[in-house]
Amino acid sequence: MIRFENVSVQFDQRRVLDDISLTLTEKRIAVVGANGSGKSTFVRLLNGLQTATSGTVTVDDFNPAKDGRKLRRHVGFVFQNPDNQIVYPVVEEDLAFGLKALKLPKDEVHRRIDEILARYDLTDFKTHPSHLLSGGQKQLLAISGVLVMNPRYVIFDEPTTLLDLRNRNRVERAIAKLDQTVITVSHDLDLIADYDRVLVFDQGKIALDDTPANALSKYREMMA
Amino acid sequence: MIAGLYIDGTSPLHRAGAGIKILAMIALGTGVFLIPDWPVVTVILATVLAFYPLCGFGPSVIWAQVKPIFWLLSIFFAVQLWLNDWQAGLLVVTRIAAIVLFASLVTLTTKTSAMLASLERAMGPLRPLGVNPEKVSLAISMVLRFIPVIATVASEIRDAQRARGLDKSILAMVVPLIIRTLKMADDVADAIEARSFDPDETAS
């Protein structure tokens, strides 16, 4: 369970998030809003990439402000641009990067890598240079790099923005199959149409908090 | 491209430890400069070349390693021919070719991760001096990873500037490249943090 209690974030004189209080228990949660509305800051609070200026964030038993490193194994984060997330030059080496911190036996590391590569049809690219993958394959590798850690939650920050339609659909299917709780920030409203809950951010506040059927139509009106 | 050199295989050289291969590379690099006779260095070069088919690499792979230095070797040979004689030219050229081809062979048969793991072990004794081998290893892997990414960014910027008729302006190329690289560095730092990298914890 994720709980926000009177959370505010301020950068210099600008209040990016303003007194947010809510509890998230659903499996699929979408976060939408205009550029600069505070949605990325909101999700960055969930794994300690951002700390609150005031208020408390709790993710299960973790406080992101204090337990940042432990929490990041519990809450995976997939960024918009996979090129910035893949840090090793070869596919299997990049997947092993996060696992290093878990100090798993070698056999378990190989088993997890092989399993995740098979799940996303990347087995043939195991020893492939990561920079030579297609855009969609890179995003799937970035997702694999997070899922290989077996996180409880996965945050996607605009995961389909840079992809063509085919790869966007691949990523959508990959997200749909996840057992984890998923929190997705997106401008792609079709991607989140089947989610359980939608939070619409506007100027650092939650303007709408509803089902997709209700929230998205109102959001479209807001943005018209 | 540096980042894509490793070619998968099962040859004895593929299976050999990265540390042994790096030590052999250092020994060969030093050794060929201690040998003053071109026939001996030529035999060493021939031996290095013989390893290529043993590792499953054909002439095209050998040529790919020699091609970038072909003109440099030609110039060295010509200068030595002019200053000394053809034997001196051959000695210089075979020395450099042997070193480059062996170094390439090591890179072609060694995964970056294995190379970096050896480097981390070798730097272990420097830990009391404040050197963190995990951070050095990550930095090197990221250099290898991001060379092609930055090359792609540079190419995108060049195309965008050409489209605006600014193809002769160095500033128009360099300024956006620096800005985008710095922005990318921020994003990459976030991603590394998000992926639980902890150099102090991984140290053991």
From TrEMBL, chain A:
Pfam families assigned: ABC_tran (PF00005)
Keyword Plastid: no
GO CC, alphabetical: ATP-binding cassette (ABC) transporter complex
Domain ABC transporter: 2-224
InterPro entries reported in the protein's UniProt record: AAA+_ATPase, ABC_transporter-like_ATP-bd, ABC_transporter-like_CS, ABC_transpr_CbiO/EcfA_su, ECF_ABC_transporter_ATP-bd, P-loop_NTPase
Domain of life: Bacteria
Keyword entries, A-Z: ATP-binding, Nucleotide-binding, Transport
Molecular function per GO: ATP binding; ATP hydrolysis activity; ATPase-coupled transmembrane transporter activity
Family statement drawn from the similarity comment of this UniProt entry: Belongs to the ABC transporter superfamily.
Protein name as catalogued: Cobalt ABC transporter ATP-binding protein
Organism (species): Thalassospira lohafexi
From TrEMBL, chain B:
Membrane topology note: Multi-pass membrane protein
Matching CDD domains: EcfT
Major localisation: membrane
Compartment(s) of residence: Membrane
Pfam families, alphabetized: CbiQ (PF02361)
Keyword Membrane on entry: yes
Keywords: Membrane, Transmembrane, Transmembrane helix
GO cellular component terms given for this protein: plasma membrane
Recorded family membership: Belongs to the CbiQ family.
UniProt name for this protein: Cobalt ABC transporter permease
Organism: Thalassospira lohafexi
Lineage: Bacteria, Pseudomonadati, Pseudomonadota, Alphaproteobacteria, Rhodospirillales
